[in-house]
Design goal:
This protein has about 250 residues and is mainly α. The chain has 2 domains: about 20-220, no CATH class; about 225-253, no CATH class. It has helices at about 20-45, 65-70, 85-110, 115-135, 140-160, 165-190, 195-220, 235-240. Helix 1 runs antiparallel to helix 7 (about 195-220). The radius of gyration is 22 Å and the shape is globular. The two termini are about 15 Å apart.
């Protein structure tokens, strides 16, 4: 039996921001995938407007378990309470919130060695938190202004930082998460307007791709492509031949 080909492990592609950063990043990848799949379930089960207010559900942090008490809330005038659907929408918001916190942690870890890195990330997060409170109090213009200011802080920091320690991609991912929260809000307040729903889905896919790329770069380990089919790398070589500029790639023996 011929010996299986071996590949030397390259040096890490980036300076890992923290010891367990790559593990947190992979956890965020898995959670982002779960948010996307559960969001599709919410939409296909016609539960996208089951909580007409945001970020609460008929004024509750969780969801109503009985229809009668929730009927007194102003949101009941928009849509009658459907308990069997309301939990789906609010649970989707909850796991998306957990993902947002996890991305915030990743951004803080990645930017902690940058000048005023942690301060910028936490300032943007605080502005978003204040914007949510203002939105719940019907101060919509002020809430939007603070959210956009937070986005500007994150994007400006990402443009100034390099990606050698993943500070740029982590900050951009956090900015996308903030914009996703805005789209989630508009999805409800604009009654599932198609362009907003499509943007929300595309934003979720972009978040997943950014997290996947960040986790892969932080791990710094190659995938042994030679074991995909028959151990000779035929599939990998075929796929690479379809990429412009990669037609001369040959299997490693």
């Amino acid at each position: 039996m011929p010996p299986s080909p071996s590949f030397p492990l390259p040096k890490p592609l980036v300076a890992r921001p923290a010891r367990h950063f790559h593990r947190l990043a992979w956890l965020a990848v898995a959670l982002a995938l779960g948010v996307i799949v559960f969001g599709a379930f919410v939409r296909l089960s016609d539960a996208g407007l089951s909580c007409p207010d945001w970020p609460t559900c008929y004024g509750r942090a969780a969801w109503p378990t009985l229809a009668s008490p929730a009927d007194d809330h102003a949101a009941a005038a928009i849509r009658p309470v459907e308990v069997h659907k309301a939990w789906r929408e609010q649970f989707h918001r909850m796991i998306a919130g957990v993902l947002g916190v996890l991305v915030l942690v990743l951004a803080v870890l990645a930017a902690r060695k940058r000048r005023f890195g942690i301060a910028r990330i936490l300032t943007a997060a605080a502005l978003v938190a204040i914007a949510i409170v203002l939105y719940m109090q019907a101060h919509y213009v002020a809430a939007s202004a603070l959210a956009l200011l937070a986005e500007a802080i994150l994007l400006f920091a990402a443009l100034r930082w390099s990606n050698v320690d993943l500070a740029r991609v982590a900050t951009i991912t956090l900015a996308v998460i903030v914009f996703q929260a805005l789209l989630g809000m508009w999805t409800v307040t604009w009654m599932l307007k198609p362009v907003v729903v499509m943007g929300h889905l595309l934003g979720g896919l972009l978040t997943f791709c950014l997290l996947l790329w960040m986790a892969w770069r932080a791990t710094g380990l190659p995938i042994p492509m030679s074991t995909t089919i028959g151990g000779d790398g035929t599939l990998w070589t075929t796929l690479l031949s379809l990429v412009p500029g990669e037609a001369d790639v040959v299997p490693v023996q």
